[in-house]
């Protein structure tokens, strides 16, 4: 009986991990369906981002699909900055660590939009790509 009670916390941990894995799988499946409408898209635990022509759409991933979706045009973007530790950094020589990480889009007629990222290399790659796209639409 005592040995069985010793295994009970381990069983609870296993069930929690299984539920967390299933939850993340559901988010990925909802993202996959959502991302089919875009030419280029990204997923991480903080945000989803999709690009179709000059339009960028981003939001928060959930099991039922992205929520709080916002869309803006690259034609309305004045500048793009990579923020690490809430400080603007150079896309060509980003720091190796830091948090929070975001791409900030400074729009002509609206407030700035910050799209969060989990990793600096991913944010840098997207930042460079979107800089090229900005040049194309100007």
Low-confidence stretches: none
Mean pLDDT: 92
Number of strands: 8
Strand content: 25-35%
* Rg over alpha carbons: 19 Å
Q: Can you summarize the main beta sheet?
A: 4 strands, antiparallel
Residues in helices, as a percent range: 25-40%
Structural class comes to alpha+beta
Instruction: Supply the number of helical segments.
Output: 2
Apparent shape? elongated
Keyphrases for this structure?
four-stranded antiparallel β-sheet, alpha+beta, single chain, elongated, 138 residues
Give an overview of the whole structure.
The chain is an alpha+beta fold and 138 residues long. Helices cover 38% and strands 33% of the residues. The protein has two helices and eight strands. It has a four-stranded antiparallel β-sheet with strand order 1-2-3-4, with helices on one face. It has a four-stranded antiparallel β-sheet with strand order 6-5-7-8, covered by helices on one side. β3 (55-60) and β4 (67-73) form a beta hairpin.
TL;DR of this structure?
Helix content is 38%, strand content 33%. By secondary structure, the chain is of the alpha+beta class.
Provide the fold topology.
Blueprint: H1 2-35, E1 40-43, E2 48-52, E3 55-60, E4 67-73, E5 77-84, E6 87-89, E7 101-107, E8 113-117, H2 120-137
Antiparallel strand pairs: 1-2, 2-3, 3-4, 5-6, 5-7, 7-8
């Amino acid at each position: 009986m005592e040995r069985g009670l010793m295994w009970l916390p381990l069983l609870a941990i296993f069930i929690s991990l299984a539920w967390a894995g299933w939850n993340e799988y559901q988010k990925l499946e909802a993202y996959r369906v959502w991302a089919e409408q875009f030419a280029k898209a990204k997923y991480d635990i903080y945000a989803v981002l999709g690009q179709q022509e000059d339009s960028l759409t981003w939001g928060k991933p959930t099991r039922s699909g992205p929520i709080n979706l916002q869309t803006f045009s690259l034609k309305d973007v004045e500048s793009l900055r990579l923020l690490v530790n809430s400080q603007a950094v150079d896309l060509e020589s980003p720091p190796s660590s830091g948090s929070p990480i975001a791409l900030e889009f400074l729009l002509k007629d609206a407030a700035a939009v910050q799209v969060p990222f989990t990793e600096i290399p991913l944010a840098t790659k997207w930042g460079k790509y979107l800089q090229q796209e900005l040049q194309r639409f100007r």
